[in-house]
Amino acid sequence: MGFDSWCYSIFSGLTCYDAMIFTNAEQLGLPCRFERYVTGDLHADGRRYLPLLVFGLLQPVSGGITQIGVVDRHHQVEPTLTGREGTARLVLLLSSLRLLKTPRSGFFDQNIAHGRASTMPEAYGRVVAVPAWEVGTENLPYETLYTELLLDIGSGVVGVRTSTTGVNLTTQIGKPRLEPDDWIVATRSRIDVLKFTPYD
Predict the structure, then answer these.
(1) Could you give the CA distance from residue 88 to residue 37 in angstroms, rounded to a whole number?
(2) Which DSSP string corresponds to 48-116?
(3) 153 contacts 124 by C-beta, under 8 angstroms
(4) Entry pTM
(5) pLDDT class for 46, splitting at 50, 70, 90?
(6) What pLDDT does 5 receive?
(7) Which residue from 137, 189, 128 is spatially nearest to 165, judged by alpha carbons?
(8) 186 and 107 in contact (C-beta within 8 Å)?
(9) Assign residue 181 a region: left if phi > 0, alpha if psi is -120 to 50, beta otherwise?
(10) Is residue 170 within a helix (H) or strand (E), and if so which, with residue range?
(11) 50 in Cβ contact with 34 (< 8 Å)
């Protein structure tokens, strides 16, 4: 999926199927326990807000968060799976990316008390693969970037799909192009869940 189709799927709300497609999705996997299914509040017209899923990390890193909250925008996870351990396929969207000088792994959120679920954690880890890296400058006073990458955060592998703009993306990110084995942090991410597969 390129930049134009990704923007359309995210912002139009008309092509949810496209938003669920992620390159190398079979390589994504975060061991976790499906802790809670929080039903969305009612709209005034009787419809409900989207549900929140709370996943407990089975292998949290020292000092990192132990739970993440994910809005199930595409209704991929059945409430009946609550309490089960398994593997979640997660994709971080709309992230800001920055190259790290020192390797670090895990989900962190300084604004969340220990034991509480974070809905917007910082994700530190090692780049495993970069399926898409599209930079554009044509007829614009700034640079644009669309990228998809796989990030090993120590306790599992998550996807990152984002676009960003800047006068100088090399300065903003830390190098002209991210590559496998680079260590980065993804911040201000919205998290999507593609699938939760319980263990047998």
Answers:
(1) 14
(2) BPPPEEEEEESSPPTTS-SEEEEE-TT--S-GGGTT-EEEEEEEEES-EEEE-SS---EEE-TTS-TTS
(3) yes
(4) 0.86
(5) confident
(6) 43
(7) 137
(8) no
(9) left
(10) helix 169-173
(11) no
Q: What is the DSSP letter of 181?
A: T
131-146 pLDDT per residue, tens: 999 998 777 888 999 9
Q: DSSP string covering 12-25, please?
A: HSS-HHHHT--TTG
CB within 8 A of 147, min separation 6: which ones? 97, 130, 132, 133, 134, 160, 161, 162, 163, 178
Quick check: 16 pLDDT over 70? no
Instruction: Dig out the tokens for 139 from the structure.
Output: 């007829």
| Residue 101, both tokens | 């000088």
Is pLDDT at 200 greater than 90 in this prediction?
A: no
Q: What is the pLDDT of residues 105-160, one digit of tens each?
A: 999 999 988 889 999 999 999 999 999 999 987 778 889 999 999 999 999 999 99
Element (H, E) at 3: helix 3-12
Q: Which of 19-28, 41-50, 67-76, 152-161 has the lowest mean pLDDT?
A: 41-50
- Give the Cβ contact number of residue 9 at 10 Å: 18
Structure token digits, residue 118: 């974070």
